[in-house]
Prior knowledge:
GO molecular function, one term: isomerase activity
Keywords: Isomerase, Repeat
Strand content: 35-45%
Helix content: under 10%
Domain Thioredoxin: 1-146
Oligomer: single chain
Structural class: mainly beta
Number of helices: 5
Protein name: Thiol-disulfide isomerase/thioredoxin
Amino acid sequence: MSARVRAPELRGRAWLNTGGKELKLADLRGRVCVLDFWTFCCINCLHVLDELRPLEEKYGDALVVIGVHSPKFEHERDPQALAAAVERYGVHHPVLDDADMVMWQQYAAKAWPTLSVVDPEGYVVASMAGEGHAEGLTRLLDELIATHEAKGTLHRGDGPYVAPPADDTLLRFPGKVIELPSGNLLVSDSARHSLAELTPDGESLVRRIGTGRRGRTDGPAGQASFSEPQGLCLLPDGRTVVVADTVNHLLRGFDLESGRVSTLAGTGRPWRSAADDGVSLSSPWDVTWFEGRVVVAMAGIHQLWWFDPELRTTGVLAGTTVESLRDGPIPDVWMAQPSGLSAYGKKLWIVDSETSALRWVEDGELHTAVGQGLFDFGHVDGPGKEALLQHPLGVSALPDGSVLVADTYNGAVRRYDPVSGEMSTVDSGLAEPSDLLVTRAGEVFVVESGAHRLVRLAPGAVRTVEGERHRTERPPSPLAPGEVTLDVVFTPAPGQKLDATFGPSTRLVVSAAPPELLLEGEGTGTDLSRRLVLNPAVPKGILQVVAQAATCDADVEHAACHLTRQDWGVPVVLDPAAPDRLPLILRGLDA
């Protein structure tokens, strides 16, 4: 029996969704509390928001979810940007603004997302990293509620959530835009869970496709429903629009003539393992036509996929699901939440948002024009190898071969010239631009998502920005140089056991940036513990760890299978006086 650990008190810069009230742990006593450590750039964190919604509904009077927002990017420290993200992603529970990562350190989080479960008496009873924990959480909540109801320590009642006032605008956090054959513009109105067809000036509504309520219903435009749709692609037939229905993990089709919406690909459940390749999607964020097929930016698993609209088939084009930056022949490359696509000639341009990178595929190889890794970002112009972006979400190729980038968290439009290799700034001061459209008439529209509108790009001189270089100020883990032990802690959820039906039940992949940091221990294996040798000559770096564990329900007929998976990018600093063990919790329980 391990010692019971009191949950650290909740402290932060401010609270959202509480009507102005500052919450303390004492206010939550008598209820099970799940602390969700998240950051709004992170696709895995957005997946967890979706996993928590049915649990909040099911256990509403016994469960309180608290979002603890611990930011990665500089832009995510902006309190107004956080408030907008809470609305954008439909977060209907209190959120603590942990701008200085105090709670992150107090609860020993090392990955986005991390969940900490606090029982009705105020003790931390479980911690788990990554997504896919809904089934395990359900079993744990059932146990905790039964135990504390019997003890008399469970007190049901209304939660502390207070909905903020709603604003009424033509669009609400629009995502992507395309031009239709008629000259009208079609916009994914993401927070309204619908598509909006606008007049060519982008200012008046022609028709809305979707009910405006979150759902996944096919049918006529007025009855169909989406869930936070993003990317749009007009097929060569001139009448079918492919829609990346992001939170539904589907590709949908919208027929411009009949007005009907149909499902083209996906199962509605997120991809969990290679067994899902070509079957289940994971947060498709953008779509474009390239070399006779639709290419899908599969943000949820850091890959590009293809979709054949005639055969209704899908498959992997590029990426291994490892979240990092590595070029080379596809598919054996690394990406990190690709979120914007634009095809021009033989080049497929990609913005890889979590590495703040502009990349392209040509002749079967992936290249990086701008971008240095998961934790380097900023607003710096100049040669591509030195330039920096901050979580870009949109890209559009220009007729001269250059590309415009919606540099989302810098609030800017940037231009990259492949001939000179230079990055420059075209416009700035925008509110989270998320996409760009070059119309047939040569106009450039910017989807200014944070301002809920489309704006024309003002023509003018290209400017050069020389400052604002950042790295993620995430507390590093001190480790001793030389031999260290990496331990990924995994405990099956209540009622589950490790499952080796389809091969080894666990998998561990380790790499480093820079590669010289790791003298020994790189590669793939099936043991969740591994001996590493860290190079004393490299004072700091990033250990990149991917772990997964397969489980199934124990002692039941027709047992369901589950896969728990998490990527860590762990900043480390070498110190001879530091520990020689790095524990990472994939899923842990207080025994």
